[in-house]
Amino acid sequence: MSWFPEPHARIFCAAVNYAAHRDEMGRGESGPHPMLFLRTPQSLVRGGEAIVRPANSIALDYEGELA
Asked: What are 2-56's pLDDT values in tens digits?
């Protein structure tokens, strides 16, 4: 059995949701509504597994997420 959610699953995440991260990104004050982004099961990589950098990218942006 795979550890990934069902293929139809969507993972909604709250972005820039704490002051230190907003400051780091130069976002200023938070608005009245959270900024959301989507992760799909295909975008997940288990800890210790290899990741693949797309050929048209020159760098990777990394960040840990808790779900």
From this structure: 565 565 677 888 877 777 877 887 877 777 877 888 888 777 777 788 888 889 9
- Rounded CA gap, 57 and 40, in Å? 20
Q: Report the alpha-carbon distance of residue 36 to residue 16 in Å, rounded.
A: 9
Give which of 9, 15, 10 is closest to 31, Cα–Cα.
Answer: 15
In this prediction the pTM is 0.52
Q: For residue 17, which amino acid is it?
A: N
**Structure tokens given for 35:** 């900024």
Q: Are 3 and 46 in contact (CB under 8 A)?
A: yes
Q: Which tokens sit at 17?
A: 């949701």
Tokens 């820039």, residue? 16
